[in-house]
Design a protein that fits this description.
This protein is of the alpha/beta class. It is built from 9 helices and 4 strands. The chain is globular and about 50 Å long.
């Protein structure tokens, strides 16, 4: 794994613990590659982990977040998108690319009945979910609902937790 190499290099160079680590993840069927997220989280509990990958499978996206990723970015995104994702993670606590978020929403919708799921969400969370389904960015949602991007991110995390509690 790359974690021991990372820690050895960091210690040797006497570098500070990073604020954010972008993990270039090539997850495959044999080695899911997600265990490294848990290990980084244990070693660096205050470091944000942003997964950068080609994998668009809903269960992998969700498992990455459960194991400690604060963000998920697909390799089909541009260099500028990577910059924005890192900035969002640092400034607002997290980032999920629109494509990944739509996959999560679709996955969760198919896991539960619509009525049951809607009952669990607050009014604000339902508004945010509707905006996400329409493909709005966190910035667009914050402007439309008159809240900060931090608030949007907070609600998205709460929506995710509520949905996962139900599906588990």
């Amino acid at each position: 794994s790359d974690l021991p190499q990372f820690e050895t290099s960091r210690s040797k160079e006497k570098l500070k613990v990073p604020d954010i680590i972008v993990i270039d993840s090539n997850v495959n069927a044999e080695y899911r590659g997600l265990d490294i997220l848990s290990r980084f989280t244990e070693l660096y509990p205050f470091t944000k982990l942003l997964v950068y990958t080609e994998v668009e499978e809903e269960d992998i996206i969700i498992e990455s977040i459960i194991k400690g990723a604060c963000g998920y970015l697909l390799k089909s995104n541009t260099l500028y998108d990577i910059y924005l994702a890192i900035k969002e993670c640092c400034e607002h606590g997290g980032f999920i690319s629109n494509n990944a978020m739509l996959k999560i929403i679709n996955y969760l919708q198919h896991k539960q009945t619509g009525f049951e799921k809607q009952e669990e969400l607050s009014e604000k969370q339902r508004e945010i979910t509707n905006c996400l389904q329409q493909g709005f960015t966190y910035e667009e949602i914050s402007k439309q609902l008159g809240v900060t991007r931090f608030t949007v991110n907070y609600h998205v995390q709460r929506i995710f937790r509520k949905m996962m509690e139900k599906s588990k």
